[in-house]
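ARCHIVE CARD
Drawer: 12
Card no.: 0347
Subject: one protein chain, sequence and derived structure
Cross-reference: see card 0346
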Amino acid sequence: MLIAFEGLPGAGKTTQSRLLADHFTRQDVPVSYLPDNLTRTEDALGSTLLDLFASGDPFARHGSVVTDTMLATAIRTNTVATHIAPALAAGQMVIEDRGVHTIQSYSLATVLQKHVGHPAGGFRWLRAVSAWSGPAADVAVWLRLPAEEAIGRAVLREGAPYTAEQHAFLRHVHDAYDHLAADDPHLVTVDAFGLAPQQVHQAVLRALADHLPRSTPVDHRSLMH
């Protein structure tokens, strides 16, 4: 099974993905945890793709929805081949810090900056292109915070302010997640505002309860408390 965590910088993806990995490990479920690809060591191809991707703005990247979407798709295709597919084949539960919905939300944010109303054509194109990156998560968890709250947390963590343009772009990313959540039953929303990390963790477990396969050797009663 593949589970992904989604959301803005500062939403708590790394904290919650690690807490979930620890939860399943305690339940004797074999787990492969994949941190954000910008924080882990990759093979030569993955490193080259990441260098190309990281050469632009940290969020809007290169300003071209085609370039950014293709690069992000290529990076995840490589991640599937080198990390996700082998772990799934070995019977492990894979927990991914950022997945296909990250590609879609950031690319859709670029589209939202340039169009008024729901960008239906761009949405269909992003769905088609991101499908090339390999399997989407069986369930993706969007940790939803007000955009400014998430940005504020990220700024405190990184110790550097974001520009006005970056603030504006990340607000579009938040709106893009709203569009995705309304359209995709595999993207479940967990409202994290005002909650401590352990409270968010419990909310994540409750949100996942109906999506876990019955064969998963987990005490499902523990997910409801």
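Annotation on reverse: The radius of gyration is 17 Å. Confidence is low (pLDDT under 50) at residues 219-225.
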